[in-house]
Amino acid sequence: MAKIELKKLSKTFGDVDVIRAVDLTINAGEFMVFVGPSGCGKSTLLRLICGLEDITSGELLFDDVSMNDKVPSERGIAMVFQSYALYPHMSVYKNMAFGLKLANFSNKEMQARVLEAAKMLQIDHLLDRLPKQLSGGQRQRVAIGRAIVRDPRVFLFDEPLSNLDASLRVDTRLEIAKLHHKMKDATMVYVTHDQVEAMTLADRICVLRDGNIEQVGTPEELYHSPKSLFVAGFIGSPKMNFITGDIADQHQCHTLGIRPEHLLIDAEKGVWKGKVIHTENLGSDFFVYLDMGTGEPLVVRLDGQERIPLDTQVHVRPLPARLHRFDVNGLPITPTINQTGENL
Ligand SMILES: Nc1ncnc2c1ncn2[C@@H]1O[C@H](COP(=O)(O)OP(=O)(O)OP(=O)(O)O)[C@@H](O)[C@H]1O
User: Fold this and answer.
1) Contact between residue 188 and residue 211 where contact means Cβ atoms under 8 Å apart
2) What ipTM does this complex have?
């Protein structure tokens, strides 16, 4: 278990600043998820922590000890990549045991560790197979198993689920959540594009934007109390509706934000009016896109059982306590709402 501290950590490629003086403390045993738009520096930050990239300036500490000059093998980390990076000619057992063998572990200790990890990940019946005889999800479990056996202080994950199909993603996501629960001592840092992975796995999420940290907080904090328009628009899927113009003026703000689940459709009355221009049925949810004459359509989430035909004129009502008001600089205007949706 290690506390990870980034102090004014910077990375420059040529003359491009990719990570800009980032300050961040990841607590021992914490599951921290990095999210942000493509190119914002998530993978680079992970690679700096791992030691696969040199630090341009600033300091990286594990438990108060500087890691700046330590090579990856001296840092006590294990990394799981999107491409599983398994040795194709080695069995699952050999793949998992490989790092231990290099570290001169006895056969007995190696066997015990591999079997324990394989059981934890439910791949103990696959130990004799070659990677090509496994599904994508099983391969990723082997890659995770290979990381576990080394008993690292820190696990680093770079989009480990993005090569998996939808249902395997869900299974393996649950597996990683269980792993975190079982290995309470391990600090985990995880990069993803996926909103659900970030929300479900993270103790805290770090939102990056253009090499800077935009906000760090629990999933609930980021979802309910975003500190900027950028975070409000980034966290949540489908994203928060933003309304400018007359409606925002009436609420004395530049941009009014409201999430699709915080809008009610009413055939008869409601403060806003719109026409249904598009619908999406996801089974559990039914999304309605309304043209309100404000530019962007307003997205409303209904229960999956509800239906509204195209071209219907409807009235819409926001839950007042769930409105987010932002100024011209994209900063929230108080009163904001707290996590239970009450005005502060
Ligand atoms: N070795 C390199 N040389 C030059 N530029 C690089 C190098 N590696 C990354 N970059 C640049 O640094 C920026 C951040 O890249 P990084 O891969 O960290 O972003 P990311 O947030 O992980 O993106 P994505 O979500 O698309 O994977 C990008 O503009 C990228 O082009």
Assistant:
1) no
2) 0.96
